[in-house]
Design goal:
The chain contains 19 helices and no strands. It has about 375 residues and is an all-alpha fold. It has a single domain, classed as Hypothetical protein af1432. It is globular and about 65 Å long. Belongs to the dGTPase family. Type 2 subfamily.
Length: about 375
């Protein structure tokens, strides 16, 4: 592994592009530290504890939720950022905020809400995360949202359609939507969070999948990335053949570590090849935070396995169908009877978007209670 630090490419909080609403600086915290603190204290962040990652919240106490996933992304992100010399506070802020816009019931809820909103601008959780931090949080007297710095908001908006980017650009010329129009890159810290997200969910979905009984260690040994570290662990600790839970943990730990080291080394090499000399030049280069070709291929194989064997498992799909039914029926009920929502949502100028905002902010269990209240039927 090479050892070059990339401090000169890190985002400097003293050089931030600022907030949408001017505020005096905090006496004891830099801009990115302040962003992180605002995110942690937000209502949307607390709700993540009862939002689905893969398994619905009521299915088990130890399965990951959106909150624990976000914490794991932040941990991985900070570890990589520290090794590369990037800004750890910015990485942590982006990691903790990146899923704030996720619906109840995970991707199933998002797909159903997008279907409901098809004629009204659609629904996308990355854009919704930006709406949460820019508009929907109500904590300050002078502005809506959390008024985060540009760099944090840029990292939160990982993906964006051209149409949505143009809408953002009209509202905020030169803002966070601009890079999707110009096809430029975000900061290295934002790129890092995107990859840390993938590393985290592949690893913890293996753990949760085995714990649930929906996938087995035998199945996983057909996946090259997992099989390599599984065998390596057994070679060094044969006694773990009788302790499958510890064997799984150690296999995942080694897999995570090598993915992290791979990203660190590959990123340093990519930066050297690109010859970038400043954080601004990073934005004009191609993606620089990445896996090596070999690790990318092996990770893709693992992701494909998880998609087919876990995310599309009949048991998961059964709950997915009921979750989507709950979201669709909630949407229809609130559109027909807006007064069933809190007054500030019911009074929204765009009723369909207000309904989407309200549903997206729900936890799994609150959505199910509301569905039962409005329909008289109990799902899941």
């Amino acid at each position: 592994m090479t050892t070059t630090a990339l401090h000169f490419l890190a985002c400097d909080p003293a050089q931030t592009r600022g907030r949408r609403h001017a505020e005096p600086p905090a006496p004891t915290r830099n801009a990115f530290q302040r962003d992180r603190d605002r995110i942690v204290h937000s209502t949307a962040f607390r709700r993540l504890v009862y939002k689905t990652q893969v398994f619905l919240n009521h299915e088990g106490d130890l399965f990951r939720t959106r909150l624990t996933h976000s914490l794991e992304v932040a941990q991985l992100g900070r570890s990589i950022a520290r090794a590369l010399g990037l800004n750890e506070d910015l990485v942590e802020a982006v990691a903790l905020a990146h899923d704030l816009g996720h619906t109840p019931f995970g991707h199933a809820g998002q797909d159903a809400l997008n279907e409901c909103m098809a004629a009204h601008g659609g629904f996308e959780h990355n854009l919704q995360s930006l709406r949460v931090v820019d508009q929907l949080e109500e904590r300050y007297p002078a502005f809506d949202g959390l008024n985060l710095s540009f760099e944090t908001r840029e990292g939160v908006l990982k993906h964006c359609s051209r149409a949505n980017a143009e809408h953002l650009e009209r509202a905020e010329p030169g803002g966070v939507g601009r890079r999707f129009i110009d096809r430029t890159q975000p900061s290295l810290e934002a790129q890092l969070c995107n990859l840390a997200d993938a590393i985290a969910y592949n690893a913890h979905d293996i753990d949760d999948g085995v714990r649930s009984g929906l996938i087995s260690m035998g199945q996983l040994q057909e996946v090259a990335l997992f099989a390599h570290y599984h065998q390596q662990t057994l070679n060094e600790h044969p006694v773990l053949s009788e302790k499958p839970r510890r064997l799984l943990y150690e296999t995942i730990r080694r897999m995570l570590s090598d993915q992290v080291y791979d990203v660190i080394d590959t990123t340093r090499q990519a930066v050297a090849r690109a010859g970038v000399q400043s954080a601004d030049e990073v934005r004009l280069a191609g993606p620089l935070v990445a896996f090596s070709a070999d690790m990318k291929a092996r990770t893709a194989e693992l992701k494909k396995f998880l998609f087919a064997s876990l995310y599309r498992h009949p048991q998961v799909m059964q709950t997915t169908g009921q979750a989507q039914q709950a979201v669709r029926e909630l949407f229809a009920a609130y559109v027909a009877r807006p007064a069933e929502m809190p007054a500030d949502f019911a009074a929204g100028a765009d009723l369909h978007r207000a309904v989407a905002d309200y549903i997206a902010g729900m936890t799994d269990r609150f959505a199910l209670r509301e569905h039962e209240r409005l329909t008289g039927r109990k799902l899941l």
